[in-house]
Design goal:
heterotrimer, A mainly alpha, B mainly alpha, C mainly alpha, B: mainly alpha, 0% strand, flat, C: mainly alpha, 83% helix
Chain lengths: 329, 101, 115
């Protein structure tokens, strides 16, 4: 009897009926029964069974249903993955088509009648050196005319560093942090003192940091500036950390160094350039002398601002690495 | 402006981008992404913006990939390929040794 | 004129070394062999290319910068090679002399000996 019954339960129509009634999932092919209805049916036909038998059977059936529901889940996940892939491909192709159509409608590269070639760029190119005193017009633009853009950018970097700190920082004084450090920190983050790496680092790191400082200080004279030089200094610090471990870097770079350097640099930047938000992009007439264009000490505030941006970027890069590596500086 | 050199670089750029998406090992992906950054920095040089080239070389090829490596090590994704390749699984000692490195 | 010819010859030799290095990276299968091929381009190839540039431009700021690049690469590239080799030796169970040498490779060798 049961065989016939299970065959009946497997039919498509019965499944649809059960799905519409909300009793079972549509994907569930095999287990077309649930405990209570089975129990009722059996109770009708087999009154002479005792209560213990009932309980045994009920437990068996629930186990069976649990197994089958796992299978059901797997099947549903497979179907979902298929749909997901199809949908992903369709979305990707649609976005590619839209973007390519946009690219074909863009103006030609280097065309004189492009919207970028307006009077603003002409003014920057003609009056750039006279207004800002910087030979490198790009530096004059991003740190004098449009200094508030760069202000926002350096704040974005600082906010990113703070977010990483919120997510990954481990408090070494808390119970959990102590356990973590005891478990993970013994020698795991300190590289084994590799003499080849140590000697190469002793030669390279001063060169790298000098190059970074050169790029920052010459930001208004030659290509480069705060961001590039700061990134190079950060990379040099990361190399030093990799060679000698956290104990040596903690002598000159801790959490306190990070906060003091970043915050003071950003404060100086904000104090000297926030007025652009009230006066407009052209700013006030600076009382600091421009100097002769081409000298290191020229072009007013551009050099200190470059140093500020470089400090923020270097601190951010190094703190990213420290956070990712150890959960602290 | 667009000469043969630029075209070759752009072709490599596209190949690198596709390979980054489709390589199955994370480590390979990160290294291909490094080469993508290097090609991008040469392209900035061709487009006459050396400051962007310096930044791209330092951030894209240097710091970002180092951060990726640290993350891969943290989530223990570095040894996956070795485990798949070797029929005999790695010992616990082996794992400890690689974690010490 | 002679200077340009010498520079061109040096450049071409450097490029040939680079081509050899690239070919070697794809030809060899084992990591240490491939690393050996790749290190060739980073040391000898860059030496030839930079000396070509120095001969072409004469002694000046550009040549000084090129020599700096050469020194930098000569310091960094061997260190990188050293670390790749060290990582390979410490993590690969099939490396020569490694106690974690896996069973599958030994079996393969035995099969080859039998053939």
């Amino acid at each position: 009897m049961s065989k016939i019954r299970s065959d009946y339960e497997k039919t498509l129509w019965r499944k649809i009926v059960r799905f519409v009634n909300g009793e079972k999932d549509f994907f569930d092919e095999q287990s077309g029964f649930d405990v209570e209805s089975e129990e009722l049916e059996s109770r009708k036909h087999n009154n002479f069974f005792e209560e213990t038998e009932w309980k045994k059977k009920k437990v068996q059936i629930t186990e069976l249903i649990e197994e089958r529901s796992e299978e059901t889940d797997r099947r549903a996940i497979k179907l979902y993955e298929k749909f997901y892939r199809l949908f992903a491909v369709i979305t990707c192709v649609a976005i590619i088509a839209i973007l390519l159509a946009t690219v074909t409608n863009l103006p030609d590269y280097g065309d004189a009648s492009n919207p970028a070639n307006n009077e603003v760029s002409k003014k920057y190119i003609e009056d750039g050196i006279k207004d800002t005193g910087a030979v490198n017009i790009v530096a004059g633009m991003i740190l004098d005319y449009r200094a508030f853009d760069t202000l926002g950018e350096s704040h974005v970097l600082f906010i990113a560093a703070v977010c990483v700190m919120i997510l990954l920082k481990i408090d070494p004084d808390s119970e959990k942090g102590k356990r973590f450090i005891n478990l993970e920190n013994d020698r795991a983050y300190e590289p084994k003192n590799d003499p080849i790496l140590a000697w190469a680092t002793r030669i390279l790191v001063p060169l790298i940091i000098t190059f970074g400082i050169y790029i920052i200080v010459n930001g208004h004279l030659s290509p480069g500036g705060g961001f590039s030089g700061g990134a190079i200094i950060g990379a040099g610090l990361i190399l030093y950390l990799n060679a000698f471990g956290f104990k040596k870097t903690e002598r000159f770079f801790t959490q306190k160094t990070f906060s003091v350097v970043s915050v003071s640099a950003l404060l100086f930047y904000s104090v000297s350039k926030t007025y652009a938000f009230f006066t407009g992009a052209n700013g006030l007439h600076s009382f600091i002398s421009k100097g002769t264009p081409g000298d290191i000490l020229s072009s007013g505030l551009i050099l200190p601002l470059n140093i500020c941006v470089g400090a923020v970027v270097a601190c951010t890069m190094y703190s990213f690495y420290g956070m990712f590596r150890k959960g602290g500086l | 402006m667009i000469n043969a050199f630029t075209v070759v670089l752009l072709g490599f750029l596209i190949i690198c981008a596709i390979c980054t998406c489709f390589s199955k090992n994370f480590l390979t992906s990160v290294i291909i992404f490094m080469s993508y950054s290097v090609i991008m920095s040469i392209l900035w040089m061709v487009l006459e913006s050396p400051d962007l080239a310096i930044t791209e070389a330092a951030v894209g090829a240097g710091v970002t990939s180092v951060l990726f490596f640290v993350t891969l090590k943290k989530i223990h994704a570095m040894n996956d390929q070795k485990n798949e390749d070797n029929i005999a699984p790695l010992d616990e000692k082996e794992k400890d040794r690689s974690a010490d490195m | 004129m002679i200077r340009e010819i010498i520079a061109a010859v040096l450049f071409i030799l450097g490029t040939l070394i680079y081509i050899t290095a690239t070919f070697g990276v794809y030809k060899f299968k084992y990591v240490l062999n491939r690393m050996h091929a790749a290190a060739l381009g980073d040391t000898l190839g860059i030496l030839l290319a930079v000396s070509g540039a120095v001969v072409y431009y004469g002694f000046g700021f550009i040549s000084f910068k090129s020599i700096l690049i050469l020194v930098f690469l000569w310091i960094t590239s061997p260190v990188a090679s050293h670390f790749i080799a060290k990582l390979e030796y410490t993590t690969d169970p099939e490396a020569e002399g490694n106690e974690y040498r896996s069973v599958s490779l030994k079996e393969l060798e035995k099969e080859e000996e039998n053939k």
